[in-house]
Design a protein that fits this description.
Helices cover 64% and strands 4% of the residues. It is mainly α. It has seven helices and two strands, in the order H-H-H-H-E-E-H-H-H.
Amino acid sequence: MKLKTKHKITFEQADALIEKYYDGFTTVGEEKLLQDFLTQAGLPAKYKPEQAIFGYFETKKQKPAFNIRPYIRWAGAAAILVLAIGIQTFNWKNIDSYAYIDGVKTTNKNEIQTQALASLSNVSADNNEVEQSLENLNDNEVMQQLDVFSELNK
C-alpha cells in the first residue's frame, strides 16, 4: 500500500528547484514536479510569486469553455433562410402561365398558343417596308455621309 504525501518534495528541495528554474537549468520532469508542488493549496506565503507564475502557465493550458449560444443564433438564422428559400421554390414551381387576351386574364395554355399564332399570322408577309427603305437609300448618299465623317476625324 502506497501512502500519498501532501508534498512530493520537501520545502528545501522545492527551494533548490525554484533557484534552478530561475537559472534556466531545470528539466521538464523537474518543472513538472515543481509545478505539482506549487499548485497545491496551503503553501507558505513565500511561494506566492512562484504559484502565480505556474498558475499562469496552468490557465494557459486549459481549454476555453464551449459556448453554444452563438451557434444557436447562426443555426436559427440558417433555418429561417432555408425555410424562406424552400417556400419561394415551392411557390415558383406552382406558378401558372397566363396572358391577357382582350383585357381578360387567361390561363389556358392552348388558347394562349392559338392566340399567339393568330397574331403572328396577322403580320403581313408582303410588308416590305424595310426592303423599300433600304432601296430608297442611294449609294451616293451613303458615300457622301462617310466622307463627311472622315473629314471630321482629320
